[in-house]
Amino acid sequence: VKNPVGILCHSVIDTVRTSSESNLGSVSDSNVLGTFLNNNELVMIVDVYSMLEKYDPDKMPQEQESNILQGKKCLLAEDTQFFQRVIYKFLTNLGFLVDVADDGEKAWDKLTSGKKYDIVVTDIQMPYLDGFGLVRRIRKNADLKHLPVMALSSMATDKYKQKGYEAGVSAYEIKLDKEKQKVALEKLLRGEY
Fold first, then answer.
1. pLDDT for 102
2. Are strands 32-38 and 119-123 parallel, antiparallel or unpaired?
3. What is the dihedral of CA 125, 127, 133, 139, to 10 degrees?
4. Chain-centre distance for alpha carbon 64
5. What count of other Cβ atoms lies within 10 Å of the Cβ of residue 53?
6. Which of 73, 72, 9 is nearest to 44 (CA)?
7. Cβ 4 vs Cβ 15: under 8 Å
8. Which one, of 130, 132, 126, lies nearest residue 159 by Cα?
9. Quick check: 103 and 132 in contact, CB under 8 A?
10. 20 to 30 A Cα–Cα from 115, which one of 45, 122, 148, 154?
11. Distances from the Cα of 52 to the Cαs of 129, 130, 168, in angstroms?
12. Are 122 and 149 in contact, with CB atoms under 8 Å apart?
């Protein structure tokens, strides 16, 4: 590895899985996505991508360079606030005009409301209507069936990928691999999938 980098901390106090409301965008520091309260203590959510990009910008995806993505309309279906914020920021930096839905049902409502989108980016695990169900509805709809859909998930197993492709996703990528996401989005909008 040419330029190894890591994040060093004095000690791990706790790990928390929470559904607490996050105050995303509340801090003006580009290295902090936002904050939330955990047992009456303020916790800052670190934007690891921004930190790594400052350390070695050549190793991070060049989000501003893709002309094919500029001005394209993207519907993002993502129920987790943290990932919603991270993915929204990533997509807008690529040049997309992003509309956000908190779950698959709300995404379906937006898709059938008459709004036109160039692509859908969806999480897999969501309440009310999951990503698989959303994609199945899209593929069964005469007006939407050719719309490119990229699934973004933390579920990286072949089983989930296969299930996604069987449901009709055009591409299945892992949430934290921004470079692969960018390449997949470009291919989808060029019709290369």
1. 95
2. unpaired
3. -100
4. 17
5. 19
6. 9
7. no
8. 132
9. no
10. 154
11. 35, 32, 34
12. yes
